[in-house]
Write a structure and sequence with these properties.
It is globular, with a radius of gyration of 14 Å. A hairpin with a 7-residue loop joins strand 2 and strand 3 (37-43). It has a 5-stranded antiparallel beta sheet with strand order 1-2-3-5-4, covered by helices on one side. The chain has helices spanning 5-10, 58-74; strands spanning 18-21, 25-29, 37-43, 82-85, 101-105. By secondary structure, the chain is an alpha+beta fold. The protein has one domain: HIT-like (HIT family, subunit A). It contains 2 helices and 5 strands, in the order H-E-E-E-H-E-E.
Length: 114
């Protein structure tokens, strides 16, 4: 998608502070972190939202969650805990129309969801 900010990051048109990258996934630090560790994990394939995943995307979604586990460990937040957030659609707070997961941690987050 030519106007997608995450696709531009994937293509190197916009710089990012990469934490992990392979042929399918990119993980980078959020430019406006809400926790000490705030990393965005995205598929390189453009998928608008969780509502738009197809059966053929099953493997990449599973891979993303395995990498989240690895990244959390590397960032030193796995033992004490972390949160994964996916905002889906306008009412769900999704601001960028490219599937992404927020890895949040580095402080006690509590139980409040909204």
């Amino acid at each position: 998608m030519e106007n997608c900010i995450f696709c531009k990051i994937i293509n190197g048109e916009i710089p990012s502070n990469k934490v992990y990258e392979d042929d399918d996934i990119l993980a980078f630090k959020d430019i406006n972190p809400v926790t000490p560790v705030h990393i965005l994990i995205i598929p390189k394939k453009h998928i608008n939202s969780l509502n738009d995943i197809e059966p053929e995307d099953e493997k990449i979604i599973g891979k993303i969650f395995l990498k989240i586990k690895q990244i959390a460990k590397e960032q030193g937040i796995a033992e004490n805990g972390y949160r994964i957030v996916n905002n889906c659609g306008e009412d769900g707070g999704q601001e960028v129309q490219h599937l992404h997961f927020h890895l949040l941690g580095g402080k006690k987050l509590g139980t409040k969801i909204v």
